[in-house]
Description:
Blueprint: H1 15-23, H2 29-33, E1 39-42, E2 55-70, E3 77-85, E4 88-95, E5 110-119, E6 122-132, E7 142-145, H3 154-163, H4 182-191, H5 196-227, H6 237-245, H7 253-266, E8 273-278, H8 284-297, E9 301-305, H9 309-323, E10 330-333, H10 340-348, E11 354-357, E12 371-377, H11 384-391, E13 401-406, H12 412-418, E14 423-427, E15 438-443, H13 447-460, E16 464-468, H14 483-493, E17 499-502, H15 508-519, E18 525-528, E19 541-546, H16 554-561, E20 572-577, H17 585-592, H18 596-607, H19 609-617, H20 631-645, H21 650-653, H22 655-660, H23 662-668
Parallel strand pairs: 4-6, 8-13, 8-14, 9-11, 9-12, 10-11, 12-13, 15-20, 16-18, 16-19, 17-18, 19-20
Antiparallel strand pairs: 1-7, 2-3, 2-5, 3-4, 5-6
Helix pairs in contact: 4-5, 5-20, 5-23, 7-8, 8-9, 18-19
Amino acid sequence: xxxxxxxxxxxxxxxxxxEILKKFGIKTVKDLFYNLPRDYENYEAPTSIAEIxxxxxxxxxxIEQLSTRRARRRNLSVTxxxxxxxxxxxxxxxxxxxxxxxxFSSEKEYYFTGNYELKNGRYSLISPSAAEATxxxxxxxxxxxxxxxxxxxxxxxxxxxxxxxxxFALVPDLxxxxxxxxxxxxxxxxxxxxxxxxxxxxxxxxxxxxxxELILAAKLNRRExxxxxxxxxxxxxxxxxxxxxxxxxxxxxxxxKAAWEIFQDMERREPMNRLLQGDVGSxxxxxxxxxxxGAVLAEQQVALLAPTAILAAQHFxxxxxxxxxxxxxxxxxxxxxxxxxxxxxxxxxxEVDLVIGTHALLTDDTEFAQLGLVIIDxxxxxxxxxxxxxxxxxxxxxxxxxxAMTATPIPRSLQLTVFGDLDVSVLNEMPKGRQPxxxxxxxxxxxRERLYPxxxxxxxxxxxxxxxxxxxxxxxxxxxTSVKSRTAKLQKLFPKMTIEYLHGRMKPAEKDAIMExxxxxxxxxxxxxTVVEVGVDVPNxxxxxxxxxxxxxxxQLHQLRGRVGRGTVASECxxxxxxxxxxxxxxxxxxxxxxxxxxxxxxxxLRGPGEIYGALQHxxxxxxxxxxxxxxxxxxxxKDVTEFLKNPENMVKxxxxxxxxxxxxxxTTLN
Length: 671
């Protein structure tokens, strides 16, 4: 069977279902088969209701008397019902899960897994998971639990996979080191487990397969990079010392080390392929300025690509101040630049040393005389093709050096595996004077009493507020407050304040205009989606509110929090939670720590690599099962990849493997 066949080829996948699946990256049969269960419930020995005791339980029964009501607290719905078996009945409660009303048939039996506990003076089964009894193999009692996508719940995925059971026999082998049929057996066991041991064996193989593909892609990328030639940019110590002497501050030790690593790279004939990672506010731009100055001293041009016009303008303003006095000509090229044709002629003639811009740098008519260094800020905001287009603007015989920057701290284990083809510099120190951000978890019922007074005090002190919301518009199917409705509520509460909203569907010029007004202090409260996650520095923004904080990953919460605390005034971040469920560990960790590298390690353990790398590449890494902390499996894959590459014919022989690693090659390469 062709695993790359459209998912519509499978039984039970109609146009509507296919559309939902494709929105979440499930486009082919392979995508569906590799959409592995996130967990397994053991339904082998359910407890009868007559014997139920407090704690985690599994019961089997029918459900009736379902209804949903609004709780006294805002933004909370309660769905209640009665579960009954032949020994008795108990109450079941779900919070903010009103879709449960349509999930069940009173004629069918279901397995329910959850905590049976005392709530409001009465024992109830609280927010249990549910699986239709007919979907569970009675011989094993193990039920796969899938992540919900859009309107498709775990049970929908069980039905789709069950309907395709016969297709697993046709899954072809992939890895040269695997025994015949091992891939097919692993995928089948992952979806139709006959024991816990078979699940473990399946996960072992599939994790190894992913790591093999990822490491192979990284090694192939490094090979390709080593074939290229770049301009040699000598390190000019005395002139760099003079530059540092003009700065009103001293570089941190981490900045000095990163700059030295970059200077060493640029002296070589092989193009630099380096990632500069540092927490928000750690001074990446100043390191980039040093690299740019070194390139200009060697009569090379530099291009700095930024994701937004306002961020490009901020870089232009800052770098003009530190480099302009040293004879470096710095120019800004965006869609709004006047006399673009004249500026592009000057760039082509080599009269401009450093060009800072957005996508305008990528157009065909933007040409360079001698492009020796490309700096990409927040490189994950640009696709592979966009990056390659900028890299190709160097003279045909030479490739420019590349410095990519990201404010997302990456765990060491992730660096070694995902970024095996490039070098990494780390800024793990904060400049002197940076104030730590005080973070507090706040329940929604405490907002009026504790948060609103802080907003009043903040604005009275001539400082500003970010308020982050999940959605742009209200959706009756969810309990989430949207940007627009939150703005309206705050405008009623604080009529004398200027309060506006911002979201990703606005036109770029409109977004830039609002951010510019916020930067100038004309807006006191900016209600926004996560579009401000990576943005300009607004030193007067000292208060951050993140609504529905539980719905964000730890890395993203840390990035959002980093929008405040950019000046010398102590800043605060409030994480708002709804419902009665205690805050998660990730919120507790964020409350305790401002260290992005510590939080990245925690995130890797709690949520896996997809969340962290997703922040870098919009989730495209999508490791479904591999654990990058499993050094034993990584060593095995690295050893096998090395052996595999000793025979050049292997990359021709294993066609499906060659096709499979293409996405990883696009992810890990930066040239």
